[in-house]
Amino acid sequence: MLKIPGYEQGPLVQGSAYLNDPLFWPVHFGTCLRSEDAQRAAFGADWDAAADLLHLLHDEREWPVFDVPLRSGHTFHVVYRNVEGERGVDYLIHHPTWPAAETVAVDDGHFMGPGTAWPELLSVARQPTTGGLDDADARLLLLFPTLGDALLPDDAATTLTSALAARTVIEEPAEVARMLLHHQGQWAHAHWRRADGAWINDGGHSHRNPANAFALPPSRLVEISDALNDGETTAHRDHT
């Protein structure tokens, strides 16, 4: 049985096999597909098959975990938390020197986020890795639900469209990409800036907003920022 330090829930199982199913991705986007039009565009005629897949992903006996290793030695853990009445997806980050993983975002009825800015999402997707999930499109789509960025670059839709076209059978990936970027996560689109060595945001539900009582400690904010941005202090261009 898999273990994530400090995450005392389970049973956790490796979920990587799901990543080869094109239907996994629109199912995974979940609350990012808020409108009926968005769900129709993402699932098309495959709605019944998608519902069957969602049932498997939400099996209380097996909680799928997806790992995204970073070059810094940190790992993003995406966990389907299959507690009856409290289902959701937890986005955690951990380093072997930490006693416990830290929560970056939570996608459920009591959501927490955003957890990443767009440049960080790209950085994580494109970071070279010697093990684990190494497909840039899959990494981008897997962590997309953590996104909350009010200042997206002009090419964001093109990048997301390309990933959707590569990994899904969505008939109009450009239209779905537009909808996903318009809504992003359940939280309001946040503004990001660099302060005291860390990239932080102004989101009222974010662990990466130091103004929130539940924010991550300053040292963790710095370390997580460095890991997500692959050590690049200027990764956010003109996001300030």
**Strand runs, count:** 7
Rounded to an integer, what's the Rg over CA atoms? Answer: 17 Å
- pLDDT < 50 stretches: none
Shape: globular
Q: State the distance separating the first and last CA atoms.
A: 43 Å
Q: What does the main sheet amount to?
A: 5 strands, mixed
- The portion of residues forming beta strands comes to 15-25%
| Helix/strand/pairing category | alpha+beta
Question: In short, what is this structure?
Answer:
With 240 residues, the chain is of the alpha+beta class. Helix content is 32%, strand content 16%.
Task: Give a description of the structure.
- With 240 residues, this protein is α+β, with helices and mostly antiparallel strands.
- The chain has eight helices and seven strands, in the order E-H-H-H-E-E-E-E-H-H-H-H-E-E-H.
- The strands form two sheets. It has a five-stranded mixed β-sheet, covered by helices on one side. It has a two-stranded antiparallel sheet with strand order 6-7.
- The protein is globular.
Key terms for this structure?
8 helices; 5-stranded mixed beta sheet; alpha+beta; 240 residues; two-stranded antiparallel ribbon
Helices and strands in order:
Layout: E1 12-14, H1 24-29, H2 36-43, H3 47-57, E2 63-69, E3 75-81, E4 88-94, E5 102-107, H4 118-126, H5 136-143, H6 156-167, H7 173-183, E6 192-195, E7 198-201, H8 218-228
Parallel strand pairs: 1-2
Antiparallel strand pairs: 2-3, 3-4, 4-5, 6-7
